[in-house]
Predict the 3D structure of the following.
Amino acid sequence: MKPNLLILDDERRMVDIVSMVLRREGYEVTACTDPEEALAALGSAAFDLLITDLRMPGVDGLEVLKRARSAHPELPVILMTAHASVATAIEAMKQGAVDYVEKPFNNDELKALVRRALDHTRLERENRYLRGELKSRYSLDQIIAESASMLEILALVRRSARVPSTVLITGESGTGKELIARAIHYEGERVGGPFVAANCKAFSEGVLESELFGHEKGAFTGAHRARAGLFEEAAGGTLFLDEIGEVSPDFQAKLLRVLQEKQVRRVGGSGSRAIDARLVVATNRDLREEVAAGRFREDLFFRLAVIPIHLPPLRERRDDVMPLARHFLGKWNRELERSVEGWSDDVDRYFVSHSWPGNVRELENTLERGVALARTATIEMDDLLLDSVDAHPGPASDGDSQTLHDFLERAAEERIRSALAESGGKRVEAARALGIDRTTLYRLIRKYGIEHVD
């Protein structure tokens, strides 16, 4: 669709010349010589750009600019003037003009100015759309929760979003820690700024320092140019550091200094730079235990845990399982372009009884697999690629005295041992068979004390 431009100048010859130049560039052009006529045109049609003369009898260009921007705040305006001055340009910019051009002007100069104004407007519209999409996607209203514990947590998240304090999010892998971090950002006042995420475990110590703090040219082999770190990139927004419990004591000291001074020094640099990024961190470790064991600095822990938010595992908020399952059914129907209507009674019982050691991530992966492989409009147990032990867990060996939580924990341990035995101790294959990632499997192996497979 061609951009629609409105040209206003009280000199007919100037209007004709500008209109001809811009029509040859492929634009739709409406030409006016009377300010009131131009303002009336703005009220009856949609325009992508207004180009107006500054000096006109009656209503001048600044007044046209003011009234046009009042009615259409997003409309870019370019002023044409034969009396250009710094004062005029400043006043025009204050009232919303994107630029001005001095008569007599070069046609190429005018065309370039129009292209820049339209590109700027297009990018602003795209940015607003994308920000709106992201805010809608990551808003608290999009988080599925019906259990009392999660509803309390979401209320805490909403309060946390209104303040700039550092947030520490804890919970097992797959509980949705990054989703909560994004909700804090998009519900807060920094929504217009960037959300920058980094997984601390993904970088070696030296690389992590350069990644977060930046480096100067020549700071190390391969540093061919200076580079801003993520703290600087997140200026005006939020920096999310996942797996914070994995960083070394040396890096903990450096991070503590940054948080205390609110300044960052690039690797190889001599000066410090002020930072303006809200920090949200997450870990699947118990940092209090890490502090007690001497693996995590107590002073850094208190710096990070200004607002602590703990996400319970899915097995402790079972009221959320079925609402989440229905949500993921709809999501993967859309993304995979399928029309699966639901699941069988056996699958329903499995969803209710399974301990979900991989938490929400495991549940979503299960629904994706079920939707992808369903042979009818209903997901059956065979479509989930689970064995009969998972599908039909037997009674506990110690009878009715065992709690449901204990039963589910024992069933999970037995299933993991079985998967490891079937894979010959190959953890990657076992994790794949269980439908969980390797990190989750390693954590569960440590949790249940599974040291070897018989």
